[in-house]
Structure formats: structure tokens, C-alpha cells
Amino acid sequence: MLTALFSRLFRRTAAPAAAAPATVSATAVDARDTSARPTTPPPQWSLRREAVLGSNERVAGYRFTVDHGGSGSGEKAEALIQLLLESRLADTLGYRLAFIDLPSPLLASPRLQELPAKRCVLVVTPAASDGAAPADTLAAMHALRAQGFLLAVGEPLTPAGTALLAAADLAVLDARALHAADARQLRDHLARHAPAARILARSVTSLEEARFCRSALDVAFLEGGFVTQRENWDDRELGPRVARLATLLGRLRKDADTEEIVALLKQDAALSLRLLRYVNSAGSGVLEPVHSIERAFILLGRSALQRWLLILLCGLDDNGGRASAALESALVRARMMELLGAARPRPEQETLFLTGLLSLIDVILQVPMEKAIGALAVGPEIAQALTRGEGEHALLLEIACACEAADPQQVLRAATRLQLEPASAAAAHAEALNWTFQLQDA
């Protein structure tokens, strides 16, 4: 069970919780219930992910990390490998790559053999004390490459890092340290020592940095907070297909006849086919194949159909790869919020899901947030959370956002404010990732 796994990984100091059913959602803590809250703050912990975009600006994979207080890099890497294996994330990655930071001594870990080699990028950073790469590190890297793993080298400009480039597929650079004057020097260095190696730029915080990395260094992968960066879209309007689907959602909320809703959907064959794809995915919960819109309506009901239509809306009029990456993040937030609110009534769980899903609707559709949610006529609790960051829904959105941030202190603050068991929140995050990967790969 995921909660038990995370309890072991992060060594909870609080009193153990009572046994729970074997589902992640059943272990979630209702933030409004103060009767069983821990008396001590949760320990410093996090399961974090950061999207890695490929050359086509779509999600190529995720950098996964864990953090627990003052643990060393080796202990964190071992915990992460165990987490990827036992949480099923290693099995549901689909086409995505898992980027795993690994200190060089762990290259010989037998647990690596249990990971799907062709979906893992091992990012090796040599020890600071190494003047040159030891022969056993190079031998281990070559052996892992032969098994199908991709190998990346952190700090490629140090003497030890330069030596490791001979066995590397990627060189990892920190975008915060890059300047125009250094770009040619970096490219020349890699051309001499690793002509076949591609570049992964990390800590890319803005679209300007992303454009610079692509133009000056021809990077293969970009990682950082720029994926969800907002711009000035005041002059942008909703695309015609989005506007049509927004109208359909409005009719659904006003209890229009089933025949009218089905007829409106069938006016756009592409929309109908996309909806059926989602409904038949592993994440929908529908146990039998659905081949018609009428059948989907019967099996799902109005409330669930509204959810899938909103997911469909977020996937329309794609404004580039970054919008696709933002959609994947929004789906993880939505599912995680729903899991954390599992003790609440079903209608409220749906509202939590929609809050998470719509939290990046402006980035996905590239229109102002007020314009996007105005067209969708969302409820006041959703609007309050998304436009003002207020209310209980905003608190659960905060922990969902914190799990994708590269700041363990932010995760700790958010978990403390919600008074959530860290193991339950981390397990919900992992389960939300699994669900999203299965849905997106449908």
C-alpha cells in the first residue's frame, strides 16, 4: 500500500495511524476534521517532480526526487528507486523518461536492475573530491548503457565530470549559470570531449531562458518552472472549438435534455472521438468498453460527464507543447486534490478535482484566467481559489502545487498548514501521477 511505503521511506515521527483500507483515497485526511490531527509537525519530506520538455516542447519525462531532512544524496537516491518500483510509477511512465540523480557509488546498486532501463536517465554527479573519474565509475556507466539506460553527467566542466563524458549520452547544465559569452565555450568543450552527447538544461525559470538555451546551445531537454509561467494574454480570445465546448458545458449545467447534449457533441466528430478515448482509458473507472456518446452519458452520469468534457476542453486548441505539459500538471493536481478530499461528499470531491484541473487553464488556453473561468461559469468556491487564492479549496491546491515544486520547504509549509500526514499526501501524489499517465497514454 502506498501510504505504508511512504511511511517507511520518510520515517514518520508521529504516532502511527490506524489501519486503512487498501486504497490511497481512503487514507486521505480531510483538512476540516481536527479530531485526529497530529500533535507534532510533520517531518521534512517531499516527493517532487519537475517536467522535462524535449525538443518538440512536449513532456519527455520527469525529474523525480525525494527529500527527508538531512539525509544524504545516497540515501535519497535509494529511497527514490524504491519509491519508483513500489508505487508503480516505473511501470506507468509510458513514453516518458524518469530522470534520476544518482551519486556514482550507487551505479552498482542491484536495485537498478529492477527499473525499466529504456525509460530511465541516470544523472551521475562525480564526488567533489575526485580529481578525475575513477575507472570503476566509467566501467559501471558503460555497463549500464549496454543494458539500455541513458547516462547523464552533472557538472561536466569539472575535471571528473569531463572524464565521465566519454560514457555519457547527456551533459547536464545549470541555466542559472549560463551567459551568452559562455555558450560557445560550453559547446566547444562538449564537442571535444563528448561530440555525441546532447544537453539537458536545468533550472530554466523563464521563457526567455528557455529560448536562449535552445538558440545558443541547441539543448535537447529543458527542465524548470518555465513550463507553467504565465504571460500577458489580455488580447487573446478563446478558440472556436473551446468556445463551442464551453457552451455545451453551460447547457449541461442547466440540465438540458440528454438528447440535446448528445446532439451538440455529435456536431463535432473529433470531439466525440476524443471523449470516447478518455472514457475508455484506464483512469475513467468505467468497467466496460464504451462505443457511443449515448452509452457514455448513461454510464457516467451528468456530473462525471462534466469532468470528462472539461478534460477534453483543456486538450483542445493546443497552443504548443508547453500547453500540453501544463495540462499534464493540471491533471495531476486535480486527481491529487480529489484523493486528499476523499472523506468529503462526492459533489465536493468533484469540485476539488475541477479546481485542480482549472488551476492552469489560462496557461493551457493562453487566455487570462478571468476570461477562461468566466466562459465556463464555474462555481464561487472554484473562482475564489483560482483568482484570489482563498478558501479551503486553495489550501488543497497549495499542497498539490507544492509537490511539483523543487523546494522541500514549500512542501513542508503546505503540509503543515493543512495538517496532513506526509505519507498520505505523498501517496496521493504518486497515485495521481499514475492515473494521469494512464489517462494521457490512452
From TrEMBL:
<feature type="signal peptide">
    <location>
        <begin position="1"/>
        <end position="19"/>
    </location>
</feature>
<dbReference type="InterPro" id="IPR052340">
    <property type="entry name" value="RNase_Y/CdgJ"/>
</dbReference>
<keyword id="KW-0732">Signal</keyword>
<dbReference type="Pfam" id="PF08668">
    <property type="entry name" value="HDOD"/>
</dbReference>
<dbReference type="InterPro" id="IPR013976">
    <property type="entry name" value="HDOD"/>
</dbReference>
<protein>
    <submittedName>
        <fullName>Conserved hypothetical secreted protein</fullName>
    </submittedName>
</protein>
<feature type="domain" description="HDOD">
    <location>
        <begin position="238"/>
        <end position="422"/>
    </location>
</feature>
